Amino acid sequence: MSATILVADDDAAIRTVLNQALSRAGYEVRVTSNASTLWRWVAAGEGNLVVTDVVMPDENAFDLLPRIKKARPDLPVVVMSAQNTFMTAIKASEKGAYDYLPKPFDLTELIAIIGRALAEPKKVQKAPEEDNQDGMPLVGRSAAMQEVYRVLARMMQTDLTLMITGESGTGKELVARALHDYGKRRKGPFVAINMAAIPRDLIESELFGHEKGAFTGAQARSSGRFEQAEGGTLFLDEIGDMPMDAQTRLLRVLQQGEYMTVGGRTPIRTNVRIVAATNKDLKQSIQQGLFREDLYYRLNVVPLRLPPLRDRREDIPDLVRHFALVAEREGLGSKRFDISALEAMKAYDWPGNVRELENLVRRLVALYPQDIITREIVDAEIHPPQSSPVQAERAPEKEGQLSIRQGIEQAVGKYFASFGHDLPPPGLYDRVLVEVEHPLIMAALAATGGNQIRAADLLGMNRNTLRKKIRDLGISVYRDARNA
Questions:
Q1: Who's near 232: CB < 8 A, 6+ residues apart?
Q2: For a FRET experiment, which of 59, 233, 374, 419 has its CA 20 to 30 Å from that of 3?
Q3: Strand, coil or helix: 236
Q4: What is the mean pLDDT of the chain?
């Protein structure tokens, strides 16, 4: 006997399409436009699977779902919705839905989901607890974000390891935190660690902790991030920057479920969920010998790619309103963005992604006295003038040529963005000066064929000062006879 599918949707066109498609697939179909009829069928023991919209004329499906799961816990329910937000997907999962599909959906995919649901062995599920989650941790209704929401909704009640990839500023840590806050480990701690922000020789101690006297300066026992995250989620950001020896130890933890502190002798069992993230191409890193292939497959159990903002431009108005509201709550002021300003933002490519957009909105709200932010204001911030009063005194660059200031701003911006929500290690000022000074002197010497007098003049410094810096920085000078 064929399975019976109960369909509930107040849109007559959708009911017709589903009736025809499911009938052609070999199912018996019963359709209704209201939740009360659907509940009467379910309570009477009819139907093998339910396909229902969220918004019904007489009752919301999320209010009906707990009753369905309590009365018939083995009845699969597929939820559809045109309210394509992160919370819609999460509520569908929390209320016990088998799967969630944003409208408009693909009929072939729906039929495949129904087939999987009916083929799975029946399992009794507990009625979900009521949980008011009014926050919106992820913003956007674009098609690119819908797949992100669906993956997250499916992962909420599992402990599977997740690998989040995406450009800097796309919100990888935000997604990891949402996975924790709305998942089965929400009562445990969420611990984040940025691999790129920790000195290489301290990563193992940071991850696994150390015993007193394990190394010079270890005055007392210190707990590592694995111990701090016990029972919760450990987020390993910028995993592609992890040194090879630390990768080996992490792989052992994932394989055996236990670790040892630095200087320790007793294995410690661990109970954490691992979520990793990177903006690098780890497969390329594997080919270059910089990342272990076996660790990659251990971490990449469930891959999740976050789209760059330029691939979800339709989400920009919602994001702008969200960031403006957050800024207002923080006391930065209340601002409204007109349509032309939003269009200017949608036309921009956002190399810094959502983080860059958030920073722009906060800057506009804080710095401009106008109540309405216009396109002219946005353009002035997104496309600033190429020169300033200070720059006007300098030698002018050719048209289209990147200025020194712009180049440094881009490099420093990318460096800060690589740390996500963390900060770079202390001592940044001196490190930047040293790292800029060395290539600058090298470039000056190369341009003058190794002539130190001309290089000193080019750099605007005393020749003896230049010679001292060449010596201190260990720069080898080769004279070019043509420029002597």
A1: 180, 185, 188, 189, 190, 191, 272, 273
A2: 59
A3: strand
A4: 84
Query: Alpha-carbon distance 51 to 76, whole Å?
Result: 9
CA contacts within 13 A on the Cβ side of 180: 23
When mean pLDDT is compared across 277-291, 342-356, 397-411, the lowest value belongs to 397-411
User: Rounded distance, CA 124 to CA 105, Å?
Assistant: 28
Q: What pLDDT is attached to residue 396?
A: 47
CATH number at residue 460: 1.10.10.60
Q: Judge contact between 411 and 162, C-beta under 8 A.
A: no
Closest CA to 182 of 86, 45, 46: 86
CATH code of the domain containing 234: 3.40.50.300
d(CA 452, CA 133): 67
pLDDT in tens, 60-93: 888 889 889 888 888 999 998 887 677 777 788 7
CATH code at position 361: 1.10.8.60
**What's the rounded Cα separation, in Å, for the pair 57 and 368?**
45
Span 182-201, average pLDDT: 87
- Average pLDDT of the residues in 38-66: 90
- CATH number for position 12: 3.40.50.2300
Interhelix angle 172-181/143-155, rounded to 10 degrees, is: 40
CA 299-255-264 angle, 5° bins? 115
Six-digit token pair at 122? 């029946």
Domain that residue 327 falls in: 309-382
Backbone angles phi, psi at 349, to 5 degrees: -90, -15
pLDDT for res 125: 43
Residue whose structure tokens are 């691939």: 311
What average pLDDT does the segment 289-314 reach?
93
Work out the pLDDT band at 192, boundaries 50, 70, 90: very high
| Largest interatomic CA distance in the chain | 98
Which whole-number Å values give the CA distances from 87 to 125, 136, 142, 182, in the listed order?
22, 7, 14, 10
As a whole number, mean pLDDT of residues 436-440 equals 84
